[in-house]
Amino acid sequence: MLGMRREDATGIWRVTGRPSWMGRYYRLRVTAYQPATGRVETASVTDPYSVSLSANSVFSQIVDLADPALAPPGWSAVRASTVDQAQIQVHEVSVRDFSIADTTVPAEHRGTYLAFTHPDSDGMRRLRDLAAAQVTHVQLLPVFDIATIPELRSQHQAPPCDLASLPPDSPAQQACIAQTRDVDGYNWGYDPLHPTAVEGSYATDPNGTPRIVQFRQLVAALHAAGLGVVMDVVYNHTPAAGVHRHSILDQIVPGYYQRLLDDGTLATSTCCANTAPEHAMMGKLVVDSVVTLAKHYRLSGFRFDLMGHHPKANLLAVRAALDRLTLARDGVNGKKIAIWGEGWNFGEIADDARFPQATQANLAGTGIGTFNDRLRDAVRGGGPFDSNPRVQGFASGLHTDPNGDPVNGTAGEQRTRLLHQQDIIQVGLTGNLAGYAFTDASGRTVTGAQVDYNGAPAGYTGSPGEAVTYVDAHDNEILYDALAYKLPRHTSPADRARMQVLALATTALSQGVGFVTAGSDRLRSKSLDGNSYNSGDWFNAMLPCEQGNGFGRGLPQEADNGPRWPYAKPLLADPALVADCATMAATSRRYAELLRIGTSSPLFNLASAAEVRRRVSFPLSGPAAIPGTITMVLDDTAGPRLDRAHRSIVVVFNARPEAVAQAVPGYTAADVVLHPVLAASDDPVVRTASFATATGTFTVPARTVAVFVQA
Questions:
Q1: Going by DSSP bridges, is the β-strand pair 13-14/5-6 parallel, antiparallel, or unpaired?
Q2: Which of 115, 133, 474, 607 is most buried, most CB within 10 Å of its CB?
Q3: What's the rounded Cα separation, in Å, for the pair 706 and 699?
């Protein structure tokens, strides 16, 4: 045992040793008064600043991340993405989901970092295809050291049942999985134990430095495929506090790193033991951790979990620290590293109760992005926590194709709500700008901030790159499952796929960051599980299409989904809702076409709010708007030319079950054609979209997004 010395000037505790200590394991022994027990305790804990660990995080390891021995071949040439934030298109991927069922990956590498190093696997071929279509970044679900996954594969236990033999609407699958849910090797990982060390269960050997080398191999493989890597980071809570074995910070300085309520008890609004990044040293840990990860893993971005639980000042400090990183000195251009996160406003710090938060509206003008739940809800319908999941929206048939559930109201109520949802979507397509002005469904000229979203402003950003536009993420039902609940039961598989593409189009063709969950381009399902964080591989794995799209694998876990079982059971029993290989592949091609269109012109990726206000319009919005149809014009003549090939671009989102013909002012006698990507599409429906020069009329088939260009 070695004593550490405190430096009064810095507060740092230090021990100096010999070079032979490199690679040695260690723990810290700390004696402090512990409020959780009411007495002085001596605790043995790992180092919260650990960058390497033994299996199951029993010991910290002394490691120099700059050691050349930890660099895989070619690592020195790996560079983070330099794509501007407003041009980013994101594919969200779980390391385990990505390959655990991929038989083209060697068995020993499935579910690990090394699965990404097999360029000819089915999964990597799909990622390369997406990169070719201009997906720019892969966002990984947590890959920091996770408290809740046993890291040794020998410790993992499979569910003790033949899951494949059970009926598609049975509760037996989830009940069986529940028996091993904490020892099966599966968890999303939002349980941060050591935030600056990478997770060991995704390495073939979780002891020591192989996890470092293999995660770098993953980053290098994705960069070789043309994709930057975004890390999902969680600093807003720890898995435990007090004297629990997963409590680290709270045993080193009890009561300091965790946020307390006014009565002195622990705040748990995040789900778990809230941290206090408003305190100097917790805030410093956040900044130090992000900078370390960015430098040593060549990361292209960070997604902050529950970012609204951080002070705005903490996120600005992270941004400033990254901005100081240079390619010459640090190996990364920090100014190009993107930051976004969940700017939700809730809990004991809601409405800036303790400090100005890093919430959606507060971050306007900072360049830091937040997820746009406004467009998500308007496109899908309802919200993620509705007791009745059949509430419809723009892309699920509200008013235009009613599902018959009384929850949606009368025909008149549906029409009114749909037109308001279209207003919200139009604001979202601008990058959710607070100051964007247009004519709303009532005929008024309003700004994005004046459009209502459940009592809050719909538009809240100061620049388009501050909006992360999405219609699904790992949280809540994946898009296919949300539409399964909401579309009329009689909807054909082909029409379900078309509505899926229409919903995804709002992310691919909007201003700002576009974001899609892995597999949604291929109709991926989680068998209606709205919170699959610990539902095992059975409900989460990305399956070969021959095994279906994941729908009909049993009722989802009861704890979070039980109240929806009466809605889910008849759907899961319907074999028509299991997508086939041809439909999955065709949907993916449609999404890739949208991505190629979205990067075919700088008009889809405008850098500033001023440029969006000048060039983006919705000429058919207002009281005469057709319910279920949105027409967006991108005008290159409204300022200095950005697109030498096109004077303007017209995008028509037609969610109606029939074709729509609309004359757009200013297009009579214009030279307009269907976008070349769509003209060459193997979708015969979209190729029938047409333009009548004599009247300036655009005709778009049912359930279709059509893009036209003016020469």
A1: antiparallel
A2: 115
A3: 9
State the Cα–Cα distance between residues 380 and 563, nearest whole angstrom: 20
> Distance (Å, rounded) from C-alpha 679 to C-alpha 672?
12
Asked if 102 contacts 112 with a C-beta cutoff of 8 angstroms, the reply is no
Q: Is 342 a catalytic residue?
A: yes
Q: Please state the domain extents for the chain.
A: 372-525+579-710
- Known catalytic residue at 278: no
Strand positions, DSSP E, 18-112: 25-26, 28-34, 39-45, 60-61, 89-93
pTM of the model: 0.97
| CB count in 10 Å sphere of residue 392 | 29
- Which amino acid is present at 304? F
394 contact partners, CB below 8 Å, separation of at least 6: 378, 379, 381, 418, 421, 422, 425, 628, 630, 653, 655
pLDDT of residue 597: 99
3-class secondary structure, 78:
coil
Distance CA 484, CA 474 (A): 17
Catalytic position from the list 342, 377, 401, 611: 342
Q: Which two tokens stand for residue 19?
A: 């070079």
Separation CA 69–CA 332 (nearest Å): 20
Expressed in percent and rounded to 5, the helix, strand and coil fractions of the chain are 35, 20, 45
3.20.20.140, 2.60.40.10, 3.20.20.80, 1.10.10.60: CATH of 372-525+579-710: 3.20.20.80
- Measured over the CA atoms of residue 526, residue 528, residue 529 and residue 530, the dihedral's sign is positive
Given 305, 377, 401, 593, the catalytic residue: 305
Of the candidates 275, 456, 491, 492, the residue with the CA atom closest to the CA atom of residue 377: 456
Rounded to whole angstroms, the Cα distance separating 170 from 200 reads 34
Q: Report how far residue 331's alpha carbon sits from residue 325's, in angstroms, rounded to the nearest whole number.
A: 8
User: In which residue are the tokens 């004046």 written?
Assistant: 450
* pLDDT computed for residue 42 by the predictor: 98
Share of residues in the chain with pLDDT > 90 (%): 100
Kindly state the tokens that stand for 392. 């419809």
Q: Are 634 and 601 in contact (CB under 8 A)?
A: yes
